[in-house]
Amino acid sequence: MGGPEREAAVAFRLSVDPDRPEGRGLAGMAFRSRRPCISNDYFADARLTYFYDIFRKGGARSGAAFPLIKGGKSIGVLIFLSAEVGTFQPDLNALLQKLADNVSFAVENFDRAEEKAKADERVKYLAAYDSLTGLPNRSSFSQLLNSTLVAARRCRGKVALFFIDLDRFKIINDTLGHAEGDALLVEIASRLRQALREQDVVARLGGDEFVAILPEPGRKADINRMAHKLLSAVMKPMLLKGQECRVTASIGVALYPDDGRDEQSLVKRADLAMYLAKEEGKNDVRFFSKRANTQSIERLVMESNLRKALERNEFTLHYQPKINLRTSQITGIEALIRWGQPDLGLLPPAQFIPVSEETGLIIPIGKWVIKTACEQHMSWRNEGFPPVRMAINLSPRQFQYELLLQDIDEILTRTGMDPEFLELEVTETMVMQNVDQAIKVLSAIKRRGIHIAMDDFGTGYSSMSLIKRFPIDTLKIDRAFIRQLPQDKEDRAITDAIINLGRALGLRVVAEGVENDEQEVFLRDHACDEMQGYLFSRPIPPEEISVLLGQRAIASPNLQPEACVHFTGPMTEKRV
Ligand code: C2E
Ligand code: CA
Ligand code: CA
Q1: Could you give the CA distance from residue 548 to residue 331 in angstroms, rounded to a whole number?
Q2: 142-167: per-residue pLDDT in tens?
Q3: Containing H/E element for 479?
Q4: Can you give the CATH number for the domain in which 25 is found?
Q5: Is 391 in the pocket of ligand 1 (CB under 6 A)?
Q6: pLDDT in tens, 332-369
Q7: Closest-lying ligand to the alpha carbon of 533?
Q8: Is the beta carbon of 533 within 6 A of some atom in ligand 1?
């Protein structure tokens, strides 16, 4: 407010209330009508009689009131006074109206700015904190860890990072419902917070995953104590849906600077250590160690490489001959897979079959083995070699796979291989898991004319009466019983018993892992049918098998197709 009457006007109370005299002036009218209100001659304006005394004292003769509007409502009035009559002509009024508009606009935006600041703050909060537990979330955890690491680097301090994961949380969530699951997470969050020191950070990464950052954590024993304190805090009973419940957690610990110097490696290693705590029984604490690291990382790398190995054609098959102990003829060949891993060289199956089995990759890999071995068999036949039976190992998962037989049929049809020359090797444990189902699958295999061998026999727990029920052709005595023949009395007894059992059931018996002459002699003397082992040949690439088969053709050019050549000495041993 400016102008001649400023002092008086400031002292005078105006009102917007039409029931009060001071509310009936220009300002009140402008406010209520939300339109400008102008009087170019006060003393000629009957609306303003109440104000005449004031005008006389102050000297104002004309005036204009412009409402300030925000969101369609009056929030104030701008008043202009003049000592002369007739001041407020259209040009000036337009200008003043603009001024009032500008003020209104500014006020409105001022409010908007305030609203925006509030909203920004909320967004910032939501971006930094977990809405369920109120703990810092993943992104602010990352910032907090980084700043803690910067500080530790500066003062050569240590930092412990805990990766905390609830055990079997999913079960609780599924059985009690999400609301209870949430309540549990809130409770756990507050327990973790309370169990830690003021300067420690606890954050929620999502789900039932929490992390804690402990600057200056002390010695390893102190850190261990702290982690166990968290475990006991988590473990205390709580009431959910009126029931007393208990949860446990597994904690993995990584230390700065020993285990890693940056956020990524510390988090990864704490996570790995937590994974080990879970693997080794849960409700426990594990510190990261280099050993744990190589084990887990190798596994991860292995898994991702295995996925690509098939399409990159990195698998190969080696073949190991089986020899008839009476005639010393090659009676069959076992296909054994190898992985030509670009970084690690030729890997034996023990290093990748278990992972393939766990991940299910064994299904496509196993199918590749069957296809490749059958193709190899046919290519030997096409080269004119007499047929030898091809043995292929099945894994438990493959054996349970419902499309196994369909795959085999397809491969046999496509390659033109006679099922008679295919032999599938299964193990006792595989068929013992579900005897009736196993008998069904084995019978279906058998109906096609395919042979079946019981591999690694003697290591499982199948009873003799059960063996009778399985439609098998061959028993392969496990290497473990052959190794110490003929010295070990027990192994002698077991081997002898298996040979006799096989004979009683009309099965062929093959001894695996035959490495020396004494073993061979013992087996021959005990009427074992066949042997397989380094003594005769290691598993070798197909070209070398061709050489073996070729020697046989050259040695006896007049042999009938089913006859075999007699080998006298052991083959040169080939490293695989
Ligand atoms: P397995 O079926 O018992 O195969 C025999 C294993 O004994 C082979 O090991 C072979 O190299 C080894 N061996 C043969 N003769 C001797 C010997 O005189 N002395 C010793 N110490 N060992 C001998 P490999 O090739 O490393 O295969 C290991 C296992 O991997 C196999 O045991 C089989 O269970 C599995 N496997 C191999 N290929 C495949 C495959 O294509 N599919 C599946 N599912 N498993 C396979
Ligand atoms: Ca085998
Ligand atoms: Ca075996």
Answers
A1: 12
A2: 999 999 999 999 999 999 999 999 98
A3: helix 479-482
A4: 3.30.450.40
A5: no
A6: 999 999 999 887 889 999 989 988 988 889 999 999 99
A7: 1
A8: yes
